[in-house]
Specification:
Strand order of the largest sheet: 3-2-5
Strand content: 25-35%
Helix content: under 10%
CATH class: Mainly Beta
Number of strands: 5
CATH topology: Immunoglobulin-like
Distance between the termini: 65 Å
Number of helices: 0
Shape: elongated
Radius of gyration: 19 Å
CATH architecture: Sandwich
Length: 97
Amino acid sequence: MNNINFGNTYEKPRTEIMGMKWHDINGDGKIDVGEPGLAGVTIFLDLNDNGVFEEANEPHQTTNEQGHYRFSDLEAGTYVVREVVPAGYQQTYPPVK
């Protein structure tokens, strides 16, 4: 037998980012007992760090009924995670710079 070849490449480490969007009823920037998650909020990876959600170019998730989101199978690295603040709300955590 001849030419039984194998090729390999380095497998890049993968990671995930997950969290929760909640209704900060008292506006103190902390998740308190009784403050529910917010469903239907867009959370995105701001790949160019310009503070603007670019739907066609930036990975995004919509929070579930409990306010949870998850980005899976990401290449290991540093990401800027942002939300599209729902109409009528203001972001209390993390503090807006």
